[in-house]
Design brief:
Layout lengths: L2 H4 L3 H21 L6 H8 L3 H7 L4 H16 L2 H5 L4 H19 L1 H12 L5 H6 L2 H14 L8 H21 L6 H12 L11
């Protein structure tokens, strides 16, 4: 992102956050393809020169938000530490991935997936960067009897991530027609054969 090299200080980052929020709101309301940089600038009350001093185009607004969400996960150590068990720790990470799409909304979620297919969104790296953690957490849960499915942890993690990604794509296509987090959680509990007392009460 262009702004990484040009923006220093809290005031500058606050201005960027404001532009991003305004742009994303316009995308949600009008659709990504129906919004141009000029409209974003008008809503944000900035010049096009200012916009292009931070961003190379409107797609950067989405990429910036993805990066911010990823950073917030990397810093959410406290919630991870106090989670009830290792399945809940894994869920905290996975839920952050799902919350990315809930934050964007279903319509804009389609655009996020398009960026991902163009290798611009970095979402697959987002899940892959925690792959080793997931494997260890699943292994711990199997040893503790929380996860009763004794399939190889690496295979179970792959299935779980594929399930989350596939459900998120379906949620976007269906314009958010179901509760994304609830459906993924229920499916994960079933596939992993989570012991009943550890299942959510959804």
């Amino acid at each position: 992102l262009k702004l990484v090299d040009t923006c220093k200080g809290e005031r500058c980052m606050s201005k960027i956050d404001s532009i991003v929020d305004i742009g994303l709101e316009q995308f949600r309301i009008n659709g990504y393809n129906n919004v141009n940089v000029k409209q974003i600038c008008e809503k944000a009350n900035i010049s096009r020169a200012t916009f292009y001093s931070y961003f190379s185009g409107k797609q950067d607004l989405i990429l910036y938000k993805l990066k911010a969400i990823r950073s917030s996960l990397e810093m959410s150590v406290e919630s991870f530490a106090v989670a009830a068990n290792d399945f809940e720790r894994m869920w905290i990470i996975l839920e952050k991935f799902l919350d990315t799409f809930r934050c964007f909304g279903a319509k804009l979620g389609k655009t996020v997936w398009e960026l991902e297919l163009e290798n611009a969104g970095d979402l697959f790296n987002f899940t892959n960067m925690f792959n080793a953690w997931f494997v260890q957490l699943v292994r711990n849960c199997q040893c503790q009897g929380i996860i009763q499915n004794q399939t190889d942890p690496e295979e179970l993690v792959k299935i779980g991530i594929d399930l989350a990604i596939g459900t998120t794509v379906r949620w976007s296509i269906m314009d958010g027609g179901f509760d994304l987090n609830d459906v993924v959680r229920k499916c994960m509990e079933g596939i992993y054969d989570l012991k009943p007392e550890y299942r959510s009460k959804i």
